[in-house]
Amino acid sequence: MMEKVVVGFSGGLxxxxxxxxxxxxxxxxxxxxxxxxxxxxEEELKKVEAHAYALGVKTHTTVDAVKGYYDSIIKYLxxxxxxxxxxxxxxxxxxxxxxxxxxxEHVKKVGAKLVAHGSTGAxxxxxxxxxxxxxxxxxxxxxxxxxxLQLSREAxxxxxxxKGVEMNFxxxxxxxxxxxxxxxxxxxETLNSKGILPESAWPTQMTKEGASEEMVIxxxxxxxxxxxxxxxxxxxxxxxxxxxxxxAYGIGRDIHVGDTIIGIKGRVGFEAAAxxxxxxx
Length: 281
What we know:
Blueprint: E1 4-8, H1 13-24, E2 29-36, H2 42-55, E3 59-64, H3 66-79, H4 91-110, E4 114-116, H5 125-136, E5 141-143, H6 145-148, H7 153-162, E6 175-179, E7 182-186, E8 217-220, E9 223-227, E10 230-231, H8 235-246, E11 253-259, E12 265-271, H9 273-280
Parallel strand pairs: 1-2, 1-4, 2-3, 4-5
Antiparallel strand pairs: 6-7, 7-12, 8-9, 9-10, 11-12
Helix pairs in contact: 1-7, 4-5, 8-9
């Protein structure tokens, strides 16, 4: 009987490599799970599921964590006007906790003795996932192929092409993590201290450059309840609506340089139009 492993799966390059590598090279029964914290549409989630099964997973599960992510984390970032180094609204940093907790729960549900994530050895995500897994599912072995093999994105692409995997490898040159509270973008330009991300690397393209419009945001007890007079059933819907308007202006695009938990400097591009508008409001 094949040993089970749960892979936190986004459908991107790193987690695609993990699924293929663990299936083919380690002979494991892979169960993928994607925890949606607001970065995927229904259509995109269906494409991720199809991609997972094409890679050979035994099961694939989608967890809707958007409202729970807001209720347990984002609203407190808004209450505190949180900007790391007065620059970064913790766009991806915050969602990793929610994702790790849901992945740990899925490990218990599947009855797996192994769990895998696609973090590299360069930043804080590896620590966030490892910490939560060690606390919530002690005794479950953590597998990190990208980190352990010290793989470059180019090496991952070469391996996957050799195994006949079909995906947009041009897009895969950049690591993009999208959630309700913003999107991070990493690539060869962010690996040094002076590289600038090309326009094509940003998930949201600027289509309203030079234009202007007024936005009125309503708050009740510190939480958003209206935008331009329109009411929303839950603040997450208001945040997504603000993002749909402000993102096209290129608001909230920046590159953050900060200290990582492991003691090295980290540099990442991000776009967070809705968070920056909300925090400034």
